[in-house]
Write a structure and sequence with these properties.
- By secondary structure, this protein is mainly α.
- It has one domain (about 10-45, about 50-100).
- Helix content is about 60%, strand content about 0%.
- The chain is built from 3 helices and no strands.
- The protein has helices spanning about 10-40, 60-75, 90-100.
Length: about 100
């Protein structure tokens, strides 16, 4: 459950992990992009992944905060992430995140 009212400490810990992981991914992405341009090699994938299939509830506020972290990464690097295993996600969690973008 990702909710600041019902599960504050774990939610804040999760969001902190996401931010740190995305910052590391951004650094890797930028370094790989520079090397790829110099070597003319194909793009490499970024290896950060958070399994959202175990999330059964997410509040709109947390969904917005999560989307904002990914948008911030995109704004700084140009990298756009992909959702993985969405068929395993709770339909309400998926729908809310999809609505937010």
């Amino acid at each position: 459950m990702l909710c600041l009212d019902k599960n504050r400490d774990e939610t804040l810990h999760f969001l902190s992990q996401v931010r740190a992981g995305l910052e590391a991914a951004a650094s890797q992405f930028i370094n790989r992009s520079r090397r790829r341009k110099a070597q003319h090699s194909p793009p490499a994938s970024v290896g950060n992944y958070w399994d959202l299939s175990c999330v059964h509830e997410i509040s709109p506020a947390v969904a917005l905060m999560l989307a904002a972290e990914y948008e911030r990464l995109h704004d700084h690097t140009g990298w756009r992430s992909s959702a993985i295993d969405v068929h395993k996600w709770d339909i309400d969690v998926f729908s809310l995140l999809e609505e937010i973008g």
